[in-house]
Specification:
The chain is of the alpha/beta class. The chain contains 11 helices and 11 strands.
């Protein structure tokens, strides 16, 4: 009996444990410095994000944290920003800008100096008509509009910006996600790899909606995420107006199809209409990106359509022109 138990239970379990351990080691080596979107996003969440009690915020960056993600070093400062340290008080003679946004604003896959915020800061200081510009990068990966506005209300406004630029992406109307921590999931490359690949298999098999259909569906009448986003826009417009802070919403295009007919023109029009009702100006960033082949020249990698350094430069150039026209 004991021999049968060892043969049919203990040995198979030990074999599975050995194979799982070897797989875990192999994946840790293979993905130590990878460009795999799914695994790198998991590493980002584990290393740099922390849950918070406020359900409208969900999570924030862990202050003074660091990780190597998508081929670049990523450092979070003591204030929870991917940026240098700033005093809360605005220095005399300084025009301060805060950019709110998600992973595109955060600078997924590019160095800090190649983020839109830092390119914009350099270019404004090179030609700007005021004494000095500061551009604070408040982007957090996977944030939506509700989280961006909540962050500004709870933390961002303490920096007293002259201008707030909210970079809006098509999926920012999603409901607020929850960032949960799990002892095993947060430590196992094997589990993270398996989850990301399983999700990919479901998409290929048609068990998940295509990206165009999914993004468009977020704006169907009655969708809770879109309804909450509209309320957040109203809150931010009212708050910045009461505090004498300028507000601009810059609409980032989805970078798969920017030439010809843009697949989310209707959704962008809806966003512009909501903002116009609150007197908030908008900037369509697709205009300065057209004419480029996105996959070969604007994406971080051929499998990751986040804007690369070149795309961030084109985005910064358009934002710079708007700002200079606005303050003259």
């Amino acid at each position: 009996m004991k021999a049968r138990f060892i043969k049919f239970v203990v040995i198979p379990l030990l074999t599975l444990l050995f194979l799982a351990t070897m797989t875990e080691i192999a994946l840790r080596i293979a993905f130590a410095r990878s460009l795999d979107f799914g695994v790198e996003m998991w590493k980002y969440a584990v290393a740099l994000k922390r849950p918070v009690a406020n359900e409208k915020l969900g999570f924030v960056h862990a202050p003074s944290s660091r990780a190597f993600l998508m081929g670049v070093d990523v450092a979070i400062n003591a204030q929870g920003l991917r940026d240098k340290e700033y005093s809360l008080a605005r220095p005399p003679g300084t025009y301060r800008i805060m950019i709110l946004g998600d992973s595109t604003t955060f600078g997924w896959g590019v160095t800090m100096e190649d983020t839109t915020a830092k390119i914009l800061e350099r270019e404004l200081n090179a030609v700007g008509p005021v004494g000095r510009f500061e551009v604070i990068n408040a982007g957090v990966g996977n944030y939506g509009t509700v989280q961006e506005v909540t962050y500004y209300t709870e933390r961002g406004r303490a920096f007293h910006p002259d201008l707030v630029v909210l970079q809006y992406f098509i999926n920012d109307a999603e409901p607020v996600p929850r960032e949960t921590k799990s002892f095993l999931r947060d430590r196992s490359y094997f589990i993270a790899f398996a989850i990301s690949r399983f999700d990919g298999i479901l998409r290929v098999a048609g068990r998940r909606p295509g990206w165009q259909d999914y993004y468009a569906s977020l704006y169907d009448e009655g969708q809770p995420g879109w309804r909450a986003a509209k309320m957040a826009f109203a809150d931010l417009a009212r708050q910045t107006k009461n505090e004498g802070t300028r507000l601009l919403v810059a609409l980032l295009p989805e970078l798969h199809q920017i030439n010809g007919e843009y697949p989310f023109a209707r959704e962008h029009a809806l966003v512009r209409s909501v903002l116009a009702a609150h007197g908030v100006p908008t900037l369509e960033l697709i205009d300065g990106l057209r004419g480029h082949d996105p996959e070969s020249s604007l994406w971080v990698t051929p499998l990751d359509d986040h804007p690369n350094a070149k795309a961030n430069g084109l985005i910064a150039a358009q934002t710079k022109r708007w700002i200079l026209n606005d303050i003259r």
